[in-house]
Amino acid sequence: MISEISSAASKEMASYSLLVKPSVEKDLRSLPKSVIKRVWARIEALADDPTPSQSVKLAGAEALYRIRVGDYRVIYGVDHTSKQIIIHYVRHRKDAYRTL
Fold first, then answer.
1. 98 near 27, Cβ under 8 Å?
2. Average pLDDT, rounded, for the chain
3. What is the sign of the dihedral through the CA atoms of 31, 37, 38 and 39?
């Protein structure tokens, strides 16, 4: 099951909708609170710019990207036709690419 992030302010301005997999919610619960705020701010910023200059397209994946937030990585996919961003993982850099 995937939950959709919606807030009135960001929905009016955002051109892409954010979908968060349940695994991301589990990943976020295991992070320190200070890191969660930074990660969440970067995730919300993706709605306005799905491929910021700091993002890197992952090799071997059709439409997966990653952004860095300190020692953590946010792995996400972009569907440009339906204007959706699906957040797949938020993990420490040592574990981020093991399950791709």
1. no
2. 85
3. positive
More confident residue, 46 or 60: 46
CB-CB contact of 50 with 35 (8 Å): no
Q: Per the confidence metrics, is the pTM higher than 0.90?
A: no
Token pair listed for 12: 């009016």
CATH code: domain of residue 75 = 3.30.2310.20
| Domain count along the chain | 1
**Pick from 69, 76, 94: nearest CA to 19:** 76
Q: Residues 72, 32, 2, CA angle at the centre, nearest 5°?
A: 65
What was the pLDDT predicted at 80? 87
Measured distance CA(24)–CA(85) in Å, rounded: 13
